[in-house]
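Record type: ASSEMBLY
Status: queued
Input:
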Amino acid sequence: MGRMAEMRLPSPLRRALAQHARDAWPEEACGLLVGVGGAPREVVRLANVAGDPLRRYALDPLEYMRVEHAAERRGLGVAGVWHSHPDGGAEPSETDRRAAWPGWLYVIVGLQGEGQHCIRGWRLVANEFVEEELHAEQS
Amino acid sequence: MQSNRERAPRVTVRIPPPLRPHAGDQPSLSVTGATVGEVLACLARDYPDLGQRLLTPEGRVRPYVNVFVGEQSMTARGGPESAVADGDVIAIIPAVAGG
Ligand SMILES: [Zn+2]
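Status: finished
Output:
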């Protein structure tokens, strides 16, 4: 096994993700990561339009399109997707794996009660999620 | 006026990041076709790997992609038979979901 791939996820983005997850609780929060060359620079929260937002998330396609176009007009791009697990870990579920697109970073915020949370990053490689180590600061 | 043979409209098709590796790494492509369905079929001929991810073997749009013309979904416009005009922007939008 090689070393785990790494990605920088700056502290303000981590704080935003945790806050969005708490604001949405008990529902799942979700949105996009906008960045440069795959590295996230901004967290965009979008509506969760899933039929069962307590257990699922889904983005509205029109909202997705507007974020992608606006990002690319600024020379940025959609670097990934984030969502929360309102009462659990930050490991992707089987539903997450089946719906995931290759190439993007998937960040999951797991809320664990008592104000605790865990943020982990994943990328689909050959149909399986491989963890990417998220660093708060430039290494 | 043009010749008696009508020229098919030329549209821009925007490709989302996860599908760009199958579209020559381009964020958008210029394609001709009179309807949304024709545009997608043309795209699938030029980029077969992309086509396979967008369309079923019967040529229907796969459930995990959405197709928009401007800010209106293809479905709302009447499906793949709906006409497109010169300069329209057709966006391929990946379904983003999970649990
Ligand atoms: Zn999940």
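Annotation: Chain A touches chain B through 32 residues (CB under 8 Å).
Annotation: Strands of chain A lie at 6-8, 30-36, 39-46, 57-58, 77-85, 105-111, 117-125, 128-135.
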